[in-house]
Specification:
Strand content: 15-25%
Mean pLDDT: 82
Number of helices: 8
Number of domains: 2
Helix content: 40-55%
Strand order of the largest sheet: 6-5-4-1-7
CATH class of the largest domain: Alpha Beta
Shape: elongated
CATH superfamily of the largest domain: SGNH hydrolase
Order of helices and strands: HHEEEEEEEEHEHEHEHEHH
Radius of gyration: 46 Å
Number of strands: 12
Oligomer: single chain
């Protein structure tokens, strides 16, 4: 039976060329579809791989060269030229200044010179510096802080025992003091005034602080200071009067008396005399006075810092 069926089919195929051709076309179409699907699969994979490759390249950044920790040390120094003097000239430092191994702030600082130091100048540079002899070597200081004349002391403090103790607290570098314990108006007039002329000069800032020992002499202080302001200005001296500062538990002086003294001086002193209100500063910020009249070291340092902050603001 099966044999007959096969023979029947074979006979049908053999007798029907159209059927055979259709079967062949169907088979070729199936293979083509399968190939196309496989090709599409490969194309998608290739597309994904191609699109990912640039991302991976972007993430592989070029290595960054390490920067030195102190970039300033690698700064290119500005060149300069020196005009030598025929012979060394002695000059004076007018303010604390760095000494450098080249004529420019980018060069290394190899030392410092303070106010009043004399230096042997051996040349000038084309950018405003002086070549000097320093510790047996050639060095440079900026010309703004060098003078042919001995300059006036930058700061001069004139007063009584509180000024003496201020000196003990903050020292004397670039400062001079004309002061004595227990003194007042008459010592100021007869002894301190001549010493002011000896110590102060062009560029000096003078801070006067008298009154706590003789608050009744307010008018005398006003007249003495006002009568000398023309001469002080002509010398190039800038004058400040520092308010009498507060007392603690003191049997001889009251803060009410101090306030009246300060108010009168502030009101009647020549406008060219600048006022420093140390009284309000200490009342607001606190102070320590074991004997009621004189302060501890920390208070004097705070008061000095306040003085300098006012002077710096006025410059």
């Amino acid at each position: 039976m099966k044999k007959k069926a096969n023979e029947k089919t074979n006979n049908l195929i053999a007798k029907s060329p159209f059927v055979a051709a259709f079967a062949m076309i169907f088979a070729l179409g199936f293979l083509a579809d399968a190939t196309a699907i496989h090709a599409e699969d490969n194309l998608e994979v290739a597309s994904i791989e191609t699109s990912e490759a640039p991302v991976q390249d972007q993430q592989q950044e070029a290595p960054v060269a390490e920067q030195p920790e102190d970039a300033a040390a690698y700064e290119v120094s500005t060149p300069f030229t020196v005009t030598k003097l025929e012979a060394p000239v002695t000059m004076y430092i007018t303010e604390t200044v760095n000494v450098r191994d080249g004529a420019g702030t980018e060069y290394n600082a190899i030392g410092k010179l303070g106010w009043g130091n004399c230096v042997s100048v051996t040349g000038t540079t084309n950018n405003g510096w002086y070549e000097i002899s320093y510790n047996d070597t050639v060095a440079y200081v900026i010309g703004n802080y060098v003078s042919q004349d001995l300059p006036g002391i930058p700061y001069l403090f004139v007063g009584d025992s509180r000024t003496v103790q201020l000196q003990m607290a903050v020292g004397s570098n670039d400062k001079a003091y004309v002061a004595k314990v227990g003194e007042g108006y008459y010592w100021f007039k007869n002894t301190a005034m001549p010493q002011i002329q000896e110590n102060a000069g062009a560029g000096t800032t003078m801070v006067i602080n008298f009154g706590v020992n003789d608050l009744a002499n307010a008018s005398k202080y006003i007249n003495l200071v006002n009568s000398n302001i023309d001469a002080w200005e002509a010398q190039g001296i800038t004058v400040y009067y520092a308010a009498v500062t507060p007392v603690g538990d003191c049997s001889t002086v009251s803060n009410e008396q101090i306030e009246k003294f300060n108010a009168r001086l502030q009101r009647e002193l020549d406008p060219r005399i600048k006022w420093i209100d140390g009284y309000s500063f200490l009342k607001q910020n606190g102070f320590s006075a074991s004997d009621g009249l004189h302060y501890n070291r920390s208070t004097y340092k705070n008061l000095y810092s306040y003085y300098m902050s006012v002077i710096g603001t006025d410059v």
